[in-house]
Design a protein that fits this description.
Blueprint (H helix, E strand, L loop, with lengths): L4 E6 L6 E7 L5 E8 L6 E7 L23 E7 L6 E7 L6 E7 L5 E6 L22 E6 L6 E7 L9 E7 L5 E6 L2 H5 L27 E6 L6 E7 L14 E3 L4 E9 L26 E9 L9 E5 L2 E2 L3 E3 L2 E7 L6 E5 L7 E3 L3 E6 L3 E10 L7 E11 L7 E5 L7 E6 L14 E4 L5 E4 L4 E4 L4 E9 L9 E9 L7 E2 L3 E3 L2 E4 L1 E2 L6 E5 L5 E2 L5 E4 L3 E10 L7 E11 L6 E4 L9 E5 L6 E5 L5 E4 L6 E3 L5 E10 L5 E10 L4 E4 L2 E2 L10 E6 L1 E9 L5 E5 L5 E2 L2 E2 L2 E2 L3 E11 L4 E10 L2
Parallel strand pairs: 20-26, 35-42, 51-59
Antiparallel strand pairs: 1-2, 3-4, 4-5, 5-6, 7-8, 8-9, 9-10, 11-12, 12-13, 13-14, 15-16, 16-17, 18-19, 18-21, 21-24, 22-23, 22-25, 25-26, 27-28, 28-31, 29-30, 29-32, 32-33, 34-37, 36-40, 38-39, 38-41, 41-42, 43-44, 44-47, 45-46, 45-48, 48-49, 50-52, 52-55, 53-54, 53-58, 56-57, 58-59
Length: 745
């Protein structure tokens, strides 16, 4: 078909494709979501299709092996998670426009789906929908058995309007088999060609903000109890009035605990109340600019229906999530979920259970051994009451001390070193001849015992030499000692830094010296440093000469220096004006650039168009195609990359108007060579030009382009050509204009 889905499985480090397969029929097919069964490892893929011949529908008995009617159907495809073989496919839909936007598996492997429809789905085993409660809603959730051949339940929710109320974003089935949906709706969504009924009137149940009524362009959260018994939650979140809150797909997620994380576009302009914030947050002010004043807002709501969870994590000081160490071993245990009322810890070493009301506890293991630590998290008010997790801790008493020294061998121009392993083993457990690995940082390694080794480097350079105790006979393995070796016959001072920066400029200096034990920097402004790779802040524009002095007593020349000059620049000053102001109907706007200090200017006209200039005296004009308020920005940059910008609000006045020239002369003289559609307020157009025999010689949809008199690359003879121009203006009005054009040669 015109579009297929693609299922791709990669290995854990993304270095190999395990399998890849297309999915689809002869129509348009979209794979939106997938989930993996925790019991079988099968992969379930869901989406929408116009194909009546999807593969896999006859592989085994399924709910629907034929297209269910309407413009689109949803579908579920089940794949073997190991081989990628398609095991079964079922259509999901009715005689409307059906889309599946969510799929989840519960802990028993049952499949849950979420989506929207334009005709209400058939309700099955849904007490929630009894007495016609939300039965005509155009959002649905359903539970299906793992083989896709039987319904457990199917439930609708929403107001029951002609279109879906919301655009769904996130979907979850929690450990208690409650179902969660997030979505948004309103005028912004509709204006982009995705009609929806909005959030006004959506059922409100136990909201976190009961006094918020919403304005129709808000975010809606829905929770349905296990087995579709009742609605546990229904709530709105957002600003009231104004431009309208909205969100792009993929910016909402539930975690396994039923907590919603939502990143949204919040707009306080045009009379809005502003997005609600809570005390103590990082930023409680919308700093959006002119016009709609949109900015990113984030909210997190814990809906508290997922039951209690347990997620045991161990950490040994200095090594998070470590599970092995030397006796006595202090381990900090944490419940990463941390929502229980009570925690019962068993450390597996014969010590008494510890009960806490906080999700953390330390424990010291005083004897070697392997211990299975158990955490039971309890909350008797939740659907599952308790949850358990485990971690294994291995405690040993055979740690070794790891260390080494380096000696540079004569003469001074030699690149040969002797490395002395000073490591100390535990009593009665000597190192073996392969207990250590030397990494010399030149691509070579050496596996040895604790004897001395020599190494001759082939080239000057800086080498990070490491001695690693790899022998697992010692409880602190792997343990590492390291030393930086700067091998060179002569010390050579070198460094890199960008040649310029913008105030305030925090310059970074990368020391790439050959050899060198100590370093001294002069930053050209009277300050110095002895760090190897320093940074330095310049607050004043100017030209600065940086000097590095490197010293190494093991080299033949002992000391060397180098210098480099940088330029610290101020940013351009950005100013511009425009006319006419106030606006005049159907009049181009002229912009005058009065900026200083820049050599690159980018105009952003606020309607999606932009222009780049390199001079301030360049005439800049722009024609707006609709009446509105636009935020116009001028961004400037100088030769050092320093940037600045300035933005103003501009109103335009546009009345629909169109005209086409009656003649043109495509003779290549640059005058009247192309005939175009000229006008104001043109949102869409389809312009077709025909010769006297009715043959289409040109078709265009962009007013900025036109006909050059050629057909299939050949300039046409002098003649009269007829045209049909279909227009839609920015105010929604439509017009068809017919006429003729004379091509003169």
């Amino acid at each position: 078909g015109g579009q297929d889905g693609l299922l791709l499985l990669l290995n854990s480090n993304l270095s190999n494709v395990v399998f890849a397969t297309h999915f689809g029929g002869t129509g348009q097919d979209a794979c939106f979501v997938l989930d993996v069964s925790p019991t079988t490892g099968n992969i379930y893929v869901a989406g929408a299709t116009t194909s009546t011949d999807l593969p896999g529908v006859n592989n085994q008995s399924v709910l629907h092996n034929t297209f269910q009617g309407g413009q689109t159907d949803g579908f579920i495809a089940m794949y073997n998670g190991t081989t990628g073989q398609l095991m079964a496919t079922t259509y999901m839909g009715n005689n409307g426009n059906d889309m599946l936007y969510g799929i989840q598996c519960d802990k028993a492997g049952f499949v849950y789906i979420m989506g929207t429809a334009t005709a209400a789905w058939t309700i099955r085993n849904s007490p929630f929908n009894n007495n016609n409660n939300q039965a005509a809603g155009k959002q649905f959730v359903a539970k299906i058995n793992p083989d896709l051949n039987a319904w457990v339940y199917s439930a609708n929710f929403g107001k029951g309007q002609q279109n879906p109320d919301i655009s769904p974003i996130a979907f979850l089935v929690d450990r208690c088999e409650n179902v969660y949906v997030s979505g948004w709706g309103g005028g912004i969504n509709s204006s982009q060609g995705y009609p929806n009924a909005g959030t006004n009137g959506m059922p409100i149940v136990n909201p976190v903000n009961p006094n918020f009524q919403g304005d129709g362009s808000d975010f809606y959260l829905f929770v349905l109890e296990k087995n579709a018994v009742r609605q546990l939650y229904g709530g709105l979140y957002g600003a009231f009035g104004g431009f309208g809150d909205h969100v792009d797909g993929g910016t909402s997620r539930f975690d396994a605990q039923g907590v919603i994380y939502h990143a949204v576009c919040s707009c306080k302009g045009q009379g809005g109340s502003g997005f609600p914030v809570t005390a103590g947050v990082d930023s409680d002010v919308n700093n959006g600019g002119q016009g709609a004043q949109c900015n990113l807002a984030v909210f997190k709501i814990a809906l508290d229906f997922a039951g209690v969870g347990s997620g045991l994590k161990s950490s040994i000081p200095g090594s998070t999530r470590d599970t092995s160490g030397c006796v006595p071993l202090l381990v900090n245990f944490t419940d990463t979920i941390a929502i229980a009322q009570k925690y019962i810890w068993n450390f597996g070493d014969g010590s008494a259970d510890v009960t806490t009301t906080t999700p953390t506890v330390p424990h010291t293991f005083n004897a070697p051994g392997t211990f299975r630590v158990r955490l039971i998290a309890i909350d008797s008010n939740t659907c599952n009451i308790a949850d358990t997790s485990f971690v294994n801790i291995r405690v040993r008493n055979d740690d070794a001390t790891v260390g080494f020294n380096s000696i540079k061998l004569l003469p001074c121009d030699s690149l040969k070193y002797e490395f002395v392993n000073t490591s100390v083993p535990p009593p009665n457990k000597p190192f073996r001849n392969n207990s250590f690995v030397w990494l010399f940082d030149d691509g070579t390694t050496l596996t040895t015992g604790n004897q001395r080794v020599t190494k001759a480097y082939a080239a000057s350079g800086t080498y990070n030499v490491r001695l690693i105790l790899t022998d697992t006979n010692y409880c602190n393995a792997p343990d590492t000692a390291f030393e930086v070796i700067r091998a060179a016959a002569a010390v050579e001072a070198r460094f890199t830094t960008p040649p310029s920066g913008c105030i305030p400029y925090n310059a970074s200096f990368n020391n790439i010296s050959i050899a060198g034990q100590t370093f001294f920097w002069r930053f050209g402004d009277g300050t110095t440093s002895t760090e190897r790779n320093p940074t330095h802040l310049y607050n004043t524009p100017g030209i600065y000469r940086i000097t590095l002095i490197a010293t190494d007593p093991g080299t033949c020349n002992l000391v060397d220096s180098t210098s480099f000059t940088i330029t610290v620049s101020s940013s351009p000053t950005v100013r511009f004006s425009f006319s006419p102001n106030p606006p005049e109907t159907n009049t181009p706007v002229t912009f005058v650039n009065t900026s200083t200090g820049g050599n690159y200017y980018r105009w952003l006209f606020g309607d999606g168009d932009s222009l780049v200039t390199t001079r301030t005296d360049t005439l800049v004009q722009h024609i707006y195609q609709r009446s509105a308020t636009f935020q116009v920005c001028l961004k400037a940059r100088n030769q050092f990359g320093c940037e600045a910008d300035s933005c103003v609000s501009l109103r335009s006045s546009v009345e629909p108007l169109v005209d086409v020239a009656s003649a043109f002369t495509p003779n290549g003289d640059g005058i009247n060579d192309i005939v175009r559609v000229r006008g104001f307020g043109i949102a869409r157009m389809n312009w077709r030009i025909f010769n006297r025999w009715g043959q289409l010689v040109y078709q265009g949809t962009n007013p900025n382009q036109g006909w050059d008199g050629k057909y299939q690359g050949v300039l046409q003879a002098q003649d009269v050509f007829n045209y049909v121009l279909d227009l839609e203006f920015s105010d929604g009005t439509k017009l068809q204009k017919k006429g003729d054009i004379t091509l003169l040669r």
